[in-house]
Description:
Layout lengths: L1 H20 L5 H4 L4 E7 L5 E7 L4 H10 L1 H11 L7 E6 L2 H23 L1
Parallel strand pairs: 2-3
Antiparallel strand pairs: 1-2
Helix pairs in contact: 1-4
Amino acid sequence: xxxxxxxxxxxxxxxxxxxxxxxxxxxxxxxxxxxxxxxxxxxxxxxxxxxxxxxxxxxxxxxxxxxxxxxxxxxxxxxxxxxxxxxxxxxxxxxxxxxxxxxxxxxxxxxxxxxxxx
Length: 118
């Protein structure tokens, strides 16, 4: 039962942070097209790992997100009915890049197979 609740909290935090990114005016976040991919909130609600992806410089985007942490936490506090508003830790999510790399490798293998069949 608790696992189901944490899953809902994780989804709600990720969704609300994605909405809050639309209100961010930090150029480092805007210029790198940052998006929230998922959130993992600790069972005691004190900490949350926020995974993000971006098109552009991920280090610059991370610095921009850290600068906006207060505003993002305030947004969570006002929109979610949580006992505690978690501290946010931003982590670059490499799963999209990893998936693109795998897709590219599969295309190369497929192209080699077609070339060998000819």
